[in-house]
Q: What sequence folds into this?
């Protein structure tokens, strides 16, 4: 434990998508707050449409034209990124905060060689000469375990396998030694063998460079392996957050319980896999009260009408659920996974 301030501190952040006529508002991220210390790893989990990627794009301020940060603060190294103009954000992206996108083919330019793309951040942010940047690019490819980096730097993305492309975007992300790395579903397109190698690689890079890491994923197994803290998102909000061990052993939000119970367990026999009934809500038409109440097995009358407050369950463990709100006093709910 240190007395130094958090590297990243997000307070009451809300990001909305607004239609061209302004008649439809999609509340993709709503009142999100969390902190991340230097060198720590935070896993953000939830179903598709819960707001995970929009949250990551909000941090970097690379939102699509229809999206707006409507409220809240994003403090990075003590400075509020929300108020920074575009030219200052360009100095931060890639240099201090980097992101690995879900689909490497969408972030790699097919018209430029791998060497050009890996060396570009160093040339832009550090003023490195082309020759020196290419030498560092070869070293970076070697660091992310790309075979024959001397030859690969002159090849194009389409000549690489999916696992190699994923490692290349990782090399681009760490080229300027950022303090924060955001990895958005970086293992989705990888087979299990390559996935395990890539996760090991990310862990090695984090330790070598002292990175703080935000890991966005659907895979709770990856969170258990990679992360120290976890935030569970649903309907644009963080509904539970805490240490990974605590969340996995003692979840306190019904949605977190349902996610954990849906994980297949090879040691237990069951006729059918457990699924969460219903569908995630439309962010443009969220239900009143708690967004999870139409699918919740523990729903109460007040859940349908009132938005629950964020309540402290224990030190570092919080949940947004009426089960824990009794005059502001948290009530622990035992969790038992279904057989």
A:
């Amino acid at each position: 434990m240190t007395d130094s301030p958090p590297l990243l501190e997000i307070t009451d952040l809300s990001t909305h998508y607004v239609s061209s006529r302004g008649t439809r508002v999609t509340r993709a991220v709503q009142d999100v707050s969390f902190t991340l210390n230097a060198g720590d790893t935070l896993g953000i989990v939830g179903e598709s449409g819960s707001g995970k990627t929009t949250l990551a794009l909000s941090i970097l301020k690379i939102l699509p034209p229809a999206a707006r940060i409507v409220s809240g603060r994003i403090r990075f190294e003590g400075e509020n990124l929300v108020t920074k103009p575009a030219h200052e954000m360009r100095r931060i992206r890639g240099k201090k905060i980097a992101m690995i996108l879900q689909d490497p083919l969408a972030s790699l330019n097919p018209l430029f060689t791998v060497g050009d793309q890996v060396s570009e951040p160093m040339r832009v942010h550090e003023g490195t000469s082309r020759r020196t940047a290419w030498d560092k690019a070869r070293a970076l490819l070697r660091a992310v375990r790309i075979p024959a980096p001397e030859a690969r730097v002159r090849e194009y993305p389409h000549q690489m396998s999916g696992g190699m492309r994923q490692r290349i975007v990782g090399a681009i992300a760490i080229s300027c030694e950022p303090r924060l790395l955001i990895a958005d579903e970086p293992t989705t397109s990888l087979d299990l063998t390559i996935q395990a190698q890539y996760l090991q690689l990310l862990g090695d890079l984090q330790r070598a460079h002292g990175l703080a890491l935000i890991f966005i994923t659907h895979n709770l197994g990856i969170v258990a392996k990679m992360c120290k803290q976890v935030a569970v998102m649903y309907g644009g909000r963080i509904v539970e957050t805490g240490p990974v061990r605590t969340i996995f052993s003692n979840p306190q939000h019904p949605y977190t319980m349902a996610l954990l119970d849906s994980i297949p367990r090879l040691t237990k026999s069951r006729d059918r896999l457990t699924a969460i009934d219903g569908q995630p809500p439309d962010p443009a038409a969220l239900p009143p009260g708690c967004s999870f109440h139409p699918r919740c097995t523990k729903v109460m009358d007040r859940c349908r009408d009132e938005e629950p407050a964020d309540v402290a369950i224990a030190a570092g463990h919080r949940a947004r659920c009426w089960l824990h709100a009794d005059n502001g006093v948290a009530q622990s709910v035992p969790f038992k996974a279904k057989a």
User: Anything to note?
Assistant: Residues 327-339 have pLDDT under 50 and may be disordered.
